[in-house]
């Protein structure tokens, strides 16, 4: 796992796939093949075996962490003699485009929802906090969409602060991958969940709000974080493959922002995908995403077939 190699001084303990799978212990499998098929994203071939070997052990680990954190909260509340609102356990999931963040987030949400006590688990993506296309166009940032400066970081930090403070009915904006823009007036409401999963490219990045001298990091609000990792060449291939498949599907919708690309010959479409990768996604990966990997609590390293080959867990 290159920079996360299992050296004595490494902050991570690295597990092979088989070693990690054994940590499932007796955690029950609560998802069916139909559930998994409904939850996985395009070109992310996760099957029942992958969930059993990789995601069930993660859910078991998170169950232990959440229980310990809730116990600490209760002990502190008793010590202070207060009756404060519960504080959600927040999990951040980051990584490049096309690497499987959405699938991982949805699978973990589904597994966590099926815990014996059925906790309330909400999922929010940072896409909704992207600046609207009109603003990006005005500020000359459309070609930087997905880069740190293309997000309304102040709004994202306010959202995270309110959720972590135990405030009820906190709203987040909604993003449409069809129109490739924030949906005016649309919102998703988070109302005192036990667990909140925040998924996005930039969740582990250190940054500043627009025009501010100093701001906290989004990851300051996390109790646990996961980074989905793979070789740069693999991510490139997955991105191009996904673009070509979308050209045959979602791009054909007349409302799609990318509808004009649906009729391109395959070779031209591939050339366009390569240009988009080289101009936007590769620089963002190298400059803003990969450098945040070592801030994660858990790193899932994928191989060519999208299967997780190694798991690195930060030492306590």
Q: Helices and strands in order, then pairings?
A:
Blueprint: E1 12-16, H1 17-21, H2 33-39, H3 48-80, E2 89-95, H4 101-113, E3 121-125, H5 133-138, H6 153-164, E4 170-176, E5 181-190, E6 195-199, E7 224-229, H7 232-248, H8 266-289, E8 298-302, E9 308-314
Parallel strand pairs: 2-6, 2-7, 3-6, 7-8
Antiparallel strand pairs: 1-9, 4-5, 8-9
Overview of this protein structure:
The chain is of the alpha/beta class and 316 residues long. It has one domain: Rossmann fold (3-Layer(aba) Sandwich). Helix content is 37%, strand content 18%. It has eight helices and nine strands. The strands form two sheets. It has a seven-stranded mixed β-sheet with strand order 1-9-8-7-2-6-3. A two-stranded antiparallel sheet has the order 4-5. A hairpin with a 5-residue loop joins strand 8 and strand 9. Helix 7 (232-248) crosses helix 8. The longest helix is centred in the N-terminal third of the chain and has 33 residues, at 48-80. The protein is globular, with a radius of gyration of 20 Å. 36% of the residues are buried. The mean pLDDT is 91.
